[in-house]
Amino acid sequence: MAAIDTDEDDFEVDAEDLDNTPVAESDSERLSLLVNDLHVTYRVFGAKKVGHGPAKKQTALQKFLSRGASQQGVREVKAVRGISFSARHGESIGIIGVNGSGKSTLLRAIAGLIPPASGSVYVAGDPALLGVNAVLMGDLSGERNIMIGGLALGLTQQQVKDRYQDVVDFAEIGEFVNLPMKSYSSGMGARLRFAISASAVPDILMIDEALSTGDAGFRAKSKARINEVRESAGTVFLVSHSLATVKSMCERVLWVHKGQLVMDGPADEVCKHYKKFVNETKKLAEERAAEK
Ligand SMILES: Nc1ncnc2c1ncn2[C@@H]1O[C@H](COP(=O)(O)OP(=O)(O)OP(=O)(O)O)[C@@H](O)[C@H]1O
Ligand SMILES: [Mg+2]
């Protein structure tokens, strides 16, 4: 796939144009995802008082009113700025980039959890199968979260019950399943989230960093699970800071920087360029520090 022109800053593509644009005929059947000039902007409300403490719940009306009140302090963060790519069934795609480059935001937008400022995301299959993390709640037990997550993935209650023990076993959390998720170590939380998202065979499986927190045994199981999804013609996205993990699990990699796609190509090639970039940036920073 060709690298995307990252200099382009076109905010004017609209969805209607795309509907009439046939995707390359021979490939259209195998496309699972089409991301077209996607822009995602966060609105950060200034440190102004919004009138609630962390433990206090607000009604929808209170939230609405307090949003209006803090409108002056709004700052926009353009987290994704014009990303386009397509993915096919059976593909496993790594997403790499430095901290804050927009990887998680891109995944969340693909999952439909945050609306794009402009551009579009077309998903073949059921978008409800995406992004289980958003619905899980730290105050609830692992057991309750397995149910909530399973339902969010489109499973029936009975299906979740049938798969419950498999999820607990896969996550290796044992008795902790009865405790609130917020009491889990980050590795345990990541394992449970992954086990829940793997309890259905989704059209698109998205993994954000989860694997880097697991031990070797868990990584091997995750890898097997990823292969299963791919064999059932799903698409896998894997965000990770470990280039070794990305290279071992993905044949294709997207490199995201400052919300734009710098490179899209074979894993080895993209990782090589990214590594060079990271090393050069590090060297520059060291030189600057030495000058001071
Ligand atoms: N909920 C949010 N509200 C406001 N800004 C956000 C929010 N989430 C992320 N951002 C900002 O959007 C940009 C992209 O963040 P994102 O989390 O997508 O990066 P990332 O590539 O996943 O980083 P990391 O490697 O650290 O996980 C950053 O500038 C970040 O500060
Ligand atoms: Mg992230």
TrEMBL record:
Gene Ontology molecular function terms on file: ABC-type transporter activity; ATP binding; ATP hydrolysis activity
GO cellular component: membrane
Domain called ABC transporter: residue spans: 59-283
Location of region: Disordered: 1-23
One Pfam family recorded for the sequence: ABC_tran
UniProt keyword Transport, yes or no: yes
Alphabetized InterPro entries for the sequence: AAA+_ATPase, ABC_transporter-like_ATP-bd, ABC_transpr_TagH-like, Bact_Polysacc_Export_ATP-bd, P-loop_NTPase
Feature: compositional bias, Acidic residues: 1-19
Keyword Magnesium applies: no
Record key words, sorted: ATP-binding, Nucleotide-binding, Transport
Gene3D superfamilies in the record: P-loop containing nucleotide triphosphate hydrolases
Similarity annotation: Belongs to the ABC transporter superfamily.
PANTHER family hit by this protein: TEICHOIC ACIDS EXPORT ATP-BINDING PROTEIN TAGH
Protein name (record): Teichoic acid ABC transporter ATP-binding protein
